[in-house]
Amino acid sequence: MKIYTKTGDEGLTSLLGGTRVPKFDVRIDAYGTVDELNSYIGMLRDQEVNWMRAEILKEIQDRLFTIGADLATDPSKQNVKKPDLLESDIEMLEKQIDEMEKPLAPLTSFILPGGHPSISFGHLARTVCRRCERIVTELAAMEEVSELVIQYLNRLSDYLFVLCRKMAQELNVNEVIWNPRNK
Prior knowledge:
By secondary structure, this protein is mainly alpha-helical. It is built from 5 helices and 4 strands.
């Protein structure tokens, strides 16, 4: 199978189910941003500090592929075979958040991204996740989108924020605190 098909040369692409839509369609933007997020999660998984979380991060990548397939499917096509996102996937993120938060100091200030390259990668992933969530909720205002997809992305951005805090602790790096200027 060739990687290039030339079927998108005129600015259209196919959803799962066969419907052709413009490449600027919000549905395409949504699952394209999920793909971008997945790449950032891969970069996070490759960080040495995350060796003990590599399997969890891979599971998150797997779920993002599931979400991508869901978003890439024409909602009017009922017989398209695709994997399911489950409530237990969201519960897994919540459990991971709770475990990572236990040894962390309570949050008393806003935290600026940075302090270490691994932490910066985490904040990039978090902000892409937030953008993804915005695009998916925009799509949901126009067409059917699974509530679990929106919930998962929301929880994932929380997970990524806490992961950044946990990495700072493990790397023995001070979190970069925002100190607003006094007028």
